[in-house]
Design brief:
The complex is a heterodimer of chains A (about 130) and B (about 375).
Chain A: E1 8-9, E2 14-19, E3 22-27, H1 29-35, E4 38-42, E5 49-50, E6 55-61, E7 65-69, E8 74-79, H2 82-85, H3 89-92, E9 101-105, H4 117-125
Antiparallel strand pairs in A: 1-2, 2-3, 3-9, 4-6, 5-8, 6-7, 8-9
Chain B: H1 14-19, E1 23-27, E2 30-35, H2 39-48, E3 51-54, E4 59-64, H3 68-75, E5 88-94, E6 100-110, E7 113-118, H4 123-132, E8 139-142, E9 147-153, H5 157-162, H6 168-172, E10 179-184, E11 187-192, E12 201-207, H7 208-221, E13 228-230, H8 232-241, H9 276-285, E14 289-296, E15 307-310, E16 313-323, E17 330-337, E18 346-351, E19 354-361
Parallel strand pairs in B: 3-13
Antiparallel strand pairs in B: 1-2, 3-9, 4-7, 4-8, 5-6, 6-7, 9-12, 10-11, 11-12, 14-17, 14-19, 15-16, 15-18, 16-17, 18-19
Helix pairs in contact in B: 2-8
Classes of the chains: A alpha+beta (about 130), B alpha+beta (about 375).
Chain lengths: ~130, ~375
Amino acid sequence: MDFPEDLKYSKEHEWVKVDGGTVIIGITAHAQDELGDVVYVEAPEVGSSVDASGTFGVVESVKAVSDLYAPVSGKVIEVNSRLEEEPELINTDPYNEAWIIKVEMTDSSELDALLTSEEYSSYVGAEGN
Amino acid sequence: MIEKKISPKRTHLFDKHVELGARIVPFSGFEMPVQYQGINSEHLSVRENVGIFDVSHMGEFIFEGPESTKLLNFLVTNDINKLPVGRVLYTLICKEDGSILDDAMAYRISELKYMLVVNASNIEKDFEWVTSHNNFDCKLNNISEEMCLIALQGPNSKIVLEKLIPDKMKFLNLEPFEILEFEIEKKLVLISRTGYTGEDGYEIYCGKELVNLIWDLLLEYGKTLNITPCGLGARDTLRTEMKYSLYGNEIDESINPYEAGLGWVVKLNNSEFIGYEKLSKIRSEGVCRKLIGFEMIDRGIPRKGNKIFSNGIQIGFVTSGTMSPSLNKAIGIGYVSKEHSLLDSEFEVDIRGNYRRGNVVRTPFYVKS
């Protein structure tokens, strides 16, 4: 399974792409695989704030709802509106087309708590994750 | 007190599911495939083509003896006297207070022999119930463990199944709700033209010695048609689109048949069944709440347990909900107070703390064009 090396990962199966003081956030290939067919994504409003480890939305599959956890704190500056009409992009292209939100970080040191591609891969490989 | 750990059961097709890459989940004490390639595509395969399901976890009881008809008629709300040999009917088993113990399919295999097919989640409860009420000259047998069940569903299910049946003529003339028995390797197989998906289809009952062979043969016969193995996930979305009740969701021991829109299954002229008196009363008095189908107006997917409100007051609750794969709309089934059950009535569903509007629509949600 694919866990691009240029990204950082959270234990709640989100990926983070760092772009200066801004991050782009989505969910990993592992997460979408566990969920199955994604049929609905609920994202926060632009301008709202998110807190590291707090929930910022949900991803729903046919059978279940999963909370999305913010890997870092900050302000939501952009939301991927394509996911409203095409939630299935999360399954087909989790790392590119299906980014969920862009956040302006308030504390970039929070990135240090995230995992590398290798660490995330081991984490997923370990039972129960 | 040491709690006895009950390990989950597996059907006799378990290895096939693993081989096919199924995602296995616990369901009613069994480890069952919830999906193989994906719920949405499996669902659409059944609507457009043909899908195959392992539903061996369900329960089967045999009623046999001089008073088998009397016993069955005492236990179920439908009229067994009107069930000819070689046919199946859908029925409810109610308690004295009119609440629903289970829903079931009654097969009349011969004059005095019946097979009652019940929900996996209720096998023990139901067998207890039927046994304890057996004051008739009738033998009861719980054959759930030995009996396997494969469902073949979809417009192309007929073409696929035909290849398995020796007597083609008889099979091609089989009407919905009719039974056909035949042998494979001298072992008995029973099929009925029934299903839980809203599509044409068949349910195939056989012993554990035959089930793997039948599964393989059907996959082989259906190969050129792209027959799709389907799990419980698709089974659920298919039945939800038809507004078929699922025990534990739409019906349970807190619901009576009239609330659930299942009055047609209660034959009050058959006055011998448990719950008859109470149900006659309910029928004449009317019900306060009704089971309805609704579509979401606002974004959001309704889920079992979500509360339903109107003008700030709770008027009901959701029993099932999903994003309909065939309609691409969020749909739900639920109970609302009678006044709010009319077509087009609008209300709010509390989806995880947010009030989202929905309105009552005609069901089944999915209608074949």
